[in-house]
Specification:
about 425 residues; single chain; alpha/beta
Length: about 425
């Protein structure tokens, strides 16, 4: 009995020991343990950042800035990031551009939080194969991402960056996250701006609560949506000739309004909808020759200057009224010359600007509520509205007269045509 027991124990030891050694061996070569040592000339902060990134973890220097927060969350103060949390931009460029560190970056990518970045981060013409997140950080100099290519996302959320953030001709397979980014004027007076001209973004662009003097994205191809909730652009947002394959929108639930001094959508192509509900546009909205696959909602927008939809093509409705909210306060010129929308949603009994151009403006029906075609206004209301038209065409009168006649309101239709002859 004892002999059999000894043989049994010996067999268990024989089977167990190799497996125990194998587990220890596997653990020691775990890919999450960094096998590429830092350079001795790197600072203590930089060595710590590399060891975390190489191990597949995020690197955080300021403990109060370690969380990757949602774009809807409250802005954090970045001026508390001190020099004790500094790293050099040249160190980051080494990680992403030079071997053996470039190949040693794991699939989780470079994720850096709460850093004070000294020097200039220049990733112009770089190819980044992994995710790149630099968030809740303070840049001493403006970075350049011109003509950079990345197979993942680029996140610059909640950073404070002076001067021009250059993203021209960038190619990003994923999304570009710029929410809460704060682009500020430099000490020598360089204006704060985000430059995205001729870029190609596979996913969406998140600009919610971003702050800058201007954002330029001319001729950019965007595979997803553009979100503007709570953004503050003191000079302009220009999306001329840009193709947005989903929507351009702000959120109605945002506690602070979106402010854009001037919005240019000239020649833009937007496959989805445009929703600028509750947006303040201080100077003008230029949407001439825009193409929109869905609706354009300006209900509750505060447009102080001109509104230009000349040559626009809107497959859905052009909504100047959303629920009880009507576009407000524009003393400028509203130009709908040669534009087309399936539906015009408005309330003609509310005020309109004193200068309208309705020549060649085509629509199938007018709505003034959310659910269904409403009973037409009195003919005098339409006549008062059309009297503000500065074009010399009979077309606006004939067009609305035809709509009313199709609805069976022949007397109103006749009165409108008579008003044209008297004009």
């Amino acid at each position: 009995m004892n002999t059999h027991f000894a043989l049994y124990v010996g067999l268990l030891l024989f089977l167990f020991i190799p497996h125990a050694q194998s587990f220890a061996s596997t653990n020691s070569s775990d890919p999450q343990v960094c096998q590429t040592p830092p350079l001795p000339e790197w600072t203590e902060n930089e060595q710590g950042v590399w060891n975390r990134i190489c191990a597949g973890d995020k690197a955080c220097l300021d403990p109060s800035q370690c969380e990757s927060r949602l774009c809807s969350a409250k802005r954090l103060a970045l001026d508390t990031i001190s020099e004790t949390h500094s790293i050099r931009a040249s160190f980051l460029m080494t990680l992403m551009l030079e071997e053996p560190w470039k190949s040693a970056v794991p699939r989780q990518g470079v994720r850096l939080f709460g850093a004070r970045i000294e020097g200039t981060l220049d990733l112009e013409n770089a190819t980044i194969e992994h995710e790149l997140k630099i968030e809740n950080s303070f840049f001493i100099n403006p970075p350049s991402f011109r003509r950079m290519r990345t197979a993942s996302i680029l996140s610059l959320k909640r950073n404070s960056i002076p001067g021009k953030v250059t993203l021209e001709s960038i190619i990003i397979d994923g999304s570009l996250l710029l929410c809460h980014i704060e682009s500020t004027r430099t000490h020598n007076g360089t204006e704060a701006s985000l430059l995205l001209d001729r870029g190609k973004i596979g996913g969406s662009i998140q600009l919610g609560r971003a702050t800058a003097r201007e954002v330029l994205a001319l001729g950019t191809d965007i595979g997803g949506a553009v979100f503007l909730t709570g953004a503050q652009f003191s000079h302009r947002l220009a999306l001329k000739r840009t193709h947005i394959r989903e929507s351009l929108s702000t959120s109605r639930e945002n506690p602070s309004p979106t402010f854009i001094a001037q919005l240019s959508l000239t020649g833009a192509e937007i496959d989805g909808y445009v929703d600028l509900n509750d947006t303040i546009i201080q100077k003008s909205l230029d949407a001439s020759h825009i193409r929109v696959g869905g609706a354009v909602n300006l209900g509750g927008a505060d447009i102080v200057g001109d509104l230009d939809f000349k040559g626009a093509r809107i497959d859905g409705e052009l909504a100047l009224l959303t629920g009880e909210k009507h576009i407000t306060r524009s003393p400028g010129v509203w130009n709908f010359e040669n534009s087309r929308a399936w539906t015009l949603r408005t309330n003609l009994e509310l005020w309109w600007p004193k200068s309208l151009n309705l020549g060649g403006f085509e629509y199938q029906k007018i709505l003034n509520n959310q659910a269904s075609p409403s009973k037409p206004h009195k003919a005098s209301t339409y006549i008062e509205w059309l009297a503000q038209d500065k074009s010399t065409h009979q077309g606006p009168y004939k067009h609305i007269s035809g709509i009313l006649r199709n609805m069976g309101y022949n007397t109103s239709a006749d009165n409108i045509l008579y008003a044209w002859r008297e004009k």
